[in-house]
Amino acid sequence: MNQVVVALDVGGTGMKCALVRTDGTVHHTERHPTQAERGPEAVLDTILDVASGLADKARADGLEPVAAGVAVPGVVDEENGLAVWSSNIGFRDVPVRACLQERLGLPAALGHDVRVGGIAEARLGAGQGHRHVLFVAIGTGIASALVVDGAGYSGAHGAAGEVGHIVVRPGGPVCGCGLRGCVEAIGSAKSIGRRYAERAGQPGATALDVVTRAAAGDELAATVWREAIEALADGLVTAQALYDVGVLVLGGGLAQAGDALLRPLEQAFHDRISFHRAPEFVRAGLGDEAGCIGAALLALDHLERTA
Ligand SMILES: [Zn+2]
Description:
By secondary structure, the protein is an alpha/beta fold. The protein has 9 helices and 13 strands. The protein has helices at residues 40-60, 96-104, 113-124, 184-187, 189-200, 207-215, 219-243, 259-271, 290-306, and strands at residues 3-10, 14-21, 26-33, 64-72, 75-77, 82-85, 92-94, 108-112, 132-138, 142-148, 151-152, 247-251, 280-283. The protein has a 5-stranded mixed sheet, with helices on both faces. A 5-stranded mixed sheet has the order 11-10-9-12-13, with helices on both faces. Helix 1 (40-60) runs parallel beside helix 2 and helix 6 (207-215) packs across helix 7. It starts with a strand and ends with a helix. It binds zinc ion. Zinc ion (ZN) binds next to loops.
């Protein structure tokens, strides 16, 4: 088995890149800065240079690169291989897949970072053994991916899974999307840090600081943390009412809080349900490599479909 896929997970600050074997195991990884401030064209050039360098590395290692997969944030048209809209990279209708295919001379696939991360968690990570998986990434923002039988659900416009923008506190704090009272405005790692920092007059406090201080008896931290857990639980109950998944896989930076997040969130979820069936609550298993491995899986799926 000497075939590999070139995989890149492009984020606002960094690119996680890998050569992944056809069974999903990783042969080689590398990381590069995105430097999004250079503009979308320069970022695309870097993506193509890094991908082509990885294909060369594969050949130098005696392996055969057979496809490429790239994951980006924002709104992604997977069918047409377009990065439609991404606020933190500045992509607007960029034909990433066509550029990759042309540069590498290999079949390529483009996917949404959280959706492919969900595919990786469902097939190879914490969601294994379940047919219906909701992967929820809680970091700067909150996004989710519904994965059924190993396939991601992207919606009619490539924009499915935005659980972070379910309004749970009408008239509440302003969200980055412009609405008020979204889950994300109260429960994202960024919001937790900001809300505590504002009320405590301590700029720079992070969500993980809030978790630690709440556990140590800081009342303000405990209040901010409880409000976040309650907002997240309200959003997830809505998601479960719609999706009825078997397992909820929690990832993103906030999942580093481990049981300090999982157990109170699970309890708050159970406090809010009636006839709904509760999913299992588990922490993501692939860490920050999920997006990169997922990009590789997407490329392999694409190969299989076009073979
Ligand atoms: Zn919002």
